[in-house]
Specification:
Blueprint: E1 4-5, H1 16-27, H2 38-57, E2 65-68, H3 71-86, E3 92-96, H4 101-110, E4 115-119, H5 129-135, E5 140-146, H6 161-167, E6 173-177, H7 189-192, E7 196-200, E8 211-215, H8 241-256, H9 258-276, E9 282-284, E10 294-299, H10 304-313, E11 316-317, H11 333-337, H12 342-346, E12 348-352, H13 359-375
Parallel strand pairs: 1-11, 3-4, 3-5, 5-6, 6-7
Antiparallel strand pairs: 2-8, 7-8, 9-10, 10-12
Helix pairs in contact: 1-8, 2-8, 3-4, 9-13
């Protein structure tokens, strides 16, 4: 039986190129890149090459790239490293109420020492650039904003933030969590004026447990992870070379086909929305101008978790929200911040696409949702 995997914002299937690169690093080029003998030198060459490849995808130098264990660690290093470095220049830090938990929980931890501002969506459910204009001032030392929201696909107004920082003569560093936007929409740190950018391997068909942090200049943040001084002493610890090699292989493949994939997924999203119109009482929670690869819907009067497992029984895989917080039975903080009512939140599903998907996957999903509508009315999660 075919499988329709439509949960690519949670994780993606590792591509063949990444698998081959990881196997080579585990089986042949297995040295520690900090070792001085030839095996270590060969591993260090792969480390340098991987940084060059990732750098090319972000239109930056390899010296701007620090490898980490993933998006969560990159966000932590960026946020805590920035406030540690800049705390004498101000006491205000700004983010949005719809960020990933790895950003929100950092800011919550910092509430005891800093004035923290959480910018909320407007009446249309979108983060307004006007609120950044209002809040950024000469006391602001950090602004952190995601590029693409992981639950709805909203593209946040990151393009305008650096200009506001400059116009306000603010000392603020600008951090972008680009985990859900990297190689999905056109983006590079320089064009957005970003000082720090987070990306992750397993969202682009690399391995879990590997990510990277773009740093405009290593001197703009303080070290928060201490050890053997790897990664320019920003993130110490022996590098995960199988993950790093796989990351760069996946990134190279994704970068070479980014435009083709963008148009393909755009067409697939349109097909999905058209087919959803066949099912009664479905509401779309994602903005019409959001990223193509994420669509959040509510199938009214049905419980998300019940639908999720019914679809699973039909070999269709979607999500009820962010995978990183799916074990938390509380409501989606993103949909709540958007002002949606409980009924709509409790019936929400996230469908996330990649270039491996096709119309047959969409057809399987639609058949599954029709089955949900027919068989699950009145059932609770």
């Amino acid at each position: 039986m075919n499988m329709a995997y439509l949960d690519n914002s949670a994780t993606t299937k590792v591509c063949d190129e990444a698998i081959s690169a990881a196997v080579e690093m585990m089986n042949i080029n297995f040295g520690n890149p900090s070792s001085l003998h030839c095996l270590g030198v060969n591993a260090e060459k792969q480390l340098s090459l991987s940084k060059s490849i990732i750098g090319e995808t972000l239109s930056c130098e390899r010296s701007n790239i620090i490898f980490t264990s993933g998006g969560t660690e990159s966000n932590n290093i960026a946020i805590f490293g920035a406030v540690k470095k800049k705390r004498r220049e101000g006491n205000k830090i700004i983010t949005t109420s719809i960020e990933h938990p790895s950003v929100l929980n950092c800011f919550k931890e910092l509430e005891k020492d800093f004035q923290v501002v959480y910018i909320k969506p407007d009446k249309d459910g979108k983060i307004p650039v006007s609120e950044f204009q209002k809040e950024i001032d000469e006391n602001t030392i950090l602004v952190s904003c995601m590029l693409v929201n992981n639950e709805t696909g909203e593209i946040l107004p990151c393009k305008f933030i650096k200009d506001i920082i400059k116009a306000k003569s603010s000392p603020a560093l600008f951090h972008i969590d680009a985990v859900q936007g990297y190689l999905k929409i056109p983006f590079n740190p320089t064009s957005y004026g970003a000082d720090l950018v987070t990306i992750s391997a397993h969202k682009i068909h690399g391995m879990k447990g590997c990510g990277a942090l773009y740093i405009k200049d290593k001197n703009i943040i303080s070290t928060t992870v201490f050890g053997g001084e790897q990664e320019q002493n920003i993130r110490s610890g022996t590098q995960n070379m199988p993950g790093i090699a796989a990351f760069s292989a996946a990134a190279k493949k994704g970068y070479e086909s980014i435009r083709e994939n963008f148009e393909y997924i755009k067409e697939l999203r349109a097909y999905l929305i058209n087919r959803l119109s066949e099912i009664s009482d479905i509401k779309i929670n994602s903005p019409s101008d959001g990223a193509n690869h994420i669509l959040n819907i509510s199938v009214m009067n049905l419980q998300s978790e019940v639908m999720l497992h019914h679809l699973e029984s039909m070999n269709v895989f979607v999500s009820a929200g962010s995978a990183c917080s799916s074990k938390n039975k509380g409501k989606s903080h993103v949909l709540t911040s958007m002002g949606l009512d409980n009924e709509r939140i409790n019936s929400a599903l996230r469908i996330s696409l990649c270039a491996d998907n096709d119309k047959e996957d969409i057809d399987m999903l639609i058949d599954g949702l029709k089955s949900c509508r027919k068989n699950l009315v009145g059932r609770k999660g």
